[in-house]
Amino acid sequence: MGTRRVYVNGQVWNGRRARPADVHVAGGTIEAVASPGALPPAPGSVIHDLEGGALLPGFADAHAHPLIGGLEDRYCPVRGSRTVGEVRDRVRVYARAHPGQWLIYGEGFELTLAPGGVFRASWLDEVVADRPVVLRSSDIHTVWCNTAALRRAGLLHLAADPVDGRLDRDADGTPIGTLREWGAFQPALDLVPPPGPADRTLALSRASRRLAATGLTWVQDAWVEAGDVPAYLGADLAVRMNLALRADPHTWREQREHFRSLRGAASDTVSVRTVKFFVDGIIEGGTAAMLDPYEDSADGCGLPNWEPAELQAAVTAFDADGFQAHIHAMGDAGVRTALDAVEAAARTNGPRDRRPVLTHLQLVHPADLPRFRELGVVAVFQPLWARPDAVMTDLTLPRLGDERGGRQYAIADMLASGATVAFASDWPITRPEPLHILSAAATRGGWLPGQRVDVARGVGCYTTGTARLAFAEHTQGTIRPGMRADLVHLGTDPTTVDPAALPAVPIRGTWLAGRRTA
After folding, report:
1. Residue 76 and residue 37: Cα distance in Å, rounded?
2. Where are any strands of DSSP class E within 376-462?
3. Residue closest to 482 by CA, chosen among 473, 490, 474
4. Mean pLDDT throughout 220-231?
5. What stretch of H or E contains 183?
6. Which residues pair with residue 11 across a beta bridge?
7. Angle, CA 267 vertex, CA 266 and CA 270 arms, to 5°
8. Closest CA to 249 of 370, 162, 364
9. Which value, in Å, is the radius of gyration of the alpha carbons in the chain?
10. Roughly how many angstroms between the first and final C-alpha of the chain, as a whole number?
11. Dihedrals phi, psi of 484, to nearest 5 degrees
C-alpha cells in the first residue's frame, strides 16, 4: 500500500483559503481530510509536522520548456548579461576556454540590450571571427549570429526572407546578424551539434528536480520534438509532464502518423496527448500577428507562421486524431486566427471534450474575449510578463501605442468572462517559481491595476485551472479524499501575506503521489 503519511499542525487549502486540518495519505492518494486530531493516524504512519504552515495542492505549470532549461548550462553562459559588451566578454572567455569547439552556442540574451532589439554580426566578429557563433535570445524567437555563422548557414547572401521568418538587413539588403522566427533562424540552429540521448535524459531529470523545488508537481512541456520523447520516458522525473509535439507548418501532414504512434507512449510521470502550434511570434520583436500595423511600421502587421486556412486544416486534423491543441498566440490577429482554427475543428469534427489551449495572449481584441468561454478554450497566461520591465517599456509599448498597450494581458477580464484560466512560467524564458508568478499577477508592478488577480484566485489558476487543462480535475488540483497526494508545503498561507512578499515564503516540501521530491 506504500507509505502512510499524515500532515498535521497546519493549514490546508480548501480552494479559497487555508484552514486547520489534518491530511491522511495512503498509497499515494489522499485518504481523508479531517479536523485537527479528529482521526487518529493509522499504525505505522509517518507524521509530517506542517509547523503552522500551509499545505496546498501541488502547483501545475501550464506552459514551460524543461528540456531547454535543463540543457542550457551546457552552453556559453550569456543569460543574465546586462550589456552587449558583457555578452561579448562571455563569448570571448568561453571561446578561449573551449578551443576545440568549432561552434560557440549560447542561450538567454535579452533583446533589450540593443536599440530596437537589433544585433549586428560585426559585434560578435570582433571577439570571435574564426568560427560560427550562434546565440539565442531569452524569448527563443530571435537568434544573433556572427558572420561565420551566417555564411555557414547559407544566410549571408540570402536575397528573400522565408515565409515564416525574417532577417534584419542593412539598407543594401545584406543580413546584419539578427534572425527572427523559425524560418529565418533554423538554418543557424541546425549548425549546433545536438546533445546525445543520455545528455537529454539527464537534463530532464535535473530540470524536473529544480521545478519540484519550487512547489511544482505537474508541467505542460509546450514544445517537444518527436525524436525527444524517448528521453522523457527514460528520465527520472520529479514532476509529471504532458508533452506537446510541435506541428511544422510545412510538414504537418507527414507528422500525423508518427504523432499518432506516440500517443500511447506513457509512464507514471509522462503523457503525450497534445500538439503545439506556433501561430505567430512576439510583440517586442515585431513578429506577433496584429490586426493593425505596429506603430513603428506603417505597413507591418507582424509575421504569421501559418496561413489561416492551413492552420485550420492542421488543428482540425490533429483534433480528429484525438490530440489537444496548444496554440502560441501573442498578437490580436494571432489570437483571432487561433480561435478561428479551434472553431473550425469543432464544427468539422463535432462535439467532444477537447479543451483547446491558447497561450500567452498578450493582446486579445475585446470582441474575441467571449469566444474563449464559448469555445471551451483554456486561456494560459504568464503573469511575470505583465509588468513594466525593460521589455515592456523599451520595446513593446513603443510598438503598440497607448491604446493597445493598455489592453495587454487582460487576465482579470478573461476570468470575469467565465473562461478557464491557467498560469504558467514559460521557463527558462522567465523564472519558474509559482510564488513569484502569483506575486506578479497580484501586483503587476503597479501597471494596469484593473487586471490584477488576487492571490486566492491566482492559486486557483495554478491548481484547479491547470488541472482542467490537464484533463485531471478528478485527480489533481484540490485536497480531498481520492485525489493524488501531489502536494506542496508552504511556510504560511499565501493569502495572508502582502502579495509583494510572496517570493520570500519558503517552500518546505513537495510530494508526488506521497513521495517526497523536494
Report:
1. 54
2. 378-381, 421-423
3. 474
4. 97
5. helix 182-189
6. 20, 54
7. 70
8. 162
9. 23
10. 22
11. -65, 145
Three cell numbers written together for 222: 509546450
Cα atoms found within 13 Å of the Cα of residue 158, Cβ hemisphere only: 25
Secondary structure letter of residue 76 according to DSSP: B
Phi, psi torsion values for 450, nearest 5 degrees: -65, -15
Identify the pLDDT of residue 2: 66
Task: Give yes or no for a cis peptide into 428 (omega within 30° of 0).
Answer: yes
Global pTM reads 0.96
pLDDT tens figures, 135-184: 999 999 999 999 999 999 999 999 999 888 999 999 999 999 999 998 99
Cell of 243: 508533452
Instruction: Report which DSSP code applies to 58.
Output: P
Please give the grid coordinates belonging to residue 341: 482554427
Residue type, 78: V
Pair 219, 211: CB distance under 8 Å: yes
Sheet holding 515-516, edge to edge: 18-20, 11-13, 54-57, 487-490, 507-512, 515-516
The span from the CA of 290 to the CA of 23, in Å, is: 49
Cell 528536480, located at residue: 209
* 433's grid cell: 517559481
Q: Taking a C-beta distance cutoff of 8 angstroms, is the pair 273, 240 a contact?
A: no
